[in-house]
From TrEMBL:
InterPro entries: Stress/Tellurium_Resist, TerD. Belongs to the CAPAB/TerDEXZ family. CDD domains: TerD_like (cd06974). The lineage of its organism: Bacteria, Bacillati, Cyanobacteriota, Cyanophyceae, Pleurocapsales. Residues 1-190 form the TerD domain. This is TerD family protein.
Amino acid sequence: MAVNLSKGQRISLEKVAPGLSEVFVGLGWDTNITDTGRDFDIDASVFLVDDNEKLLSDNHLIFYNNLASPDGNKSVEHLGDNRTGAGEGDDEVIKVNLKQVPAEINKIVMTVTIHEAEERQQNFGQVQNAFVRVVNAENQEEVARYDLTEDFSVETALIMAELYRKDGEWRVNAVGAGYQGGLQALLDRYQ
């Protein structure tokens, strides 16, 4: 049974799903009917950072134009861009092989941003039902889920959750932090 997380809550994946080796991280959202006159294009991105919370290289930013981590095993892989967010369930999915993530990657930061938010006059206050969930890739069972409930009325970028190493095991942190400035604000934070 999945653990429903609250903002700021952390759990050990080993405790809730012993032996977990590969996960899918699903991110989803619905957009409100707005009068901006433009469709939303929300993108999931993943920052692979070291223990100083810095991006290891430009290739360690995983997104629709760089779908896999640079390690030989491609331990972190973005499964593709969903330009509409239409339909139920996960809108974008990140596959993570926890056993093969290189040791220098201490944290895997899951983010979403609104493409061309400023030009389109859009923000996350116009988005509802946003969630991130961790699913056991082996049996498709949901392990942990975090449903965002805050109203991000000016933010155009969100850190949804983090997978991070502590004491030799992977853990999940439900972050739910909003930023103005879109993807650039997140790049500024992790570079």
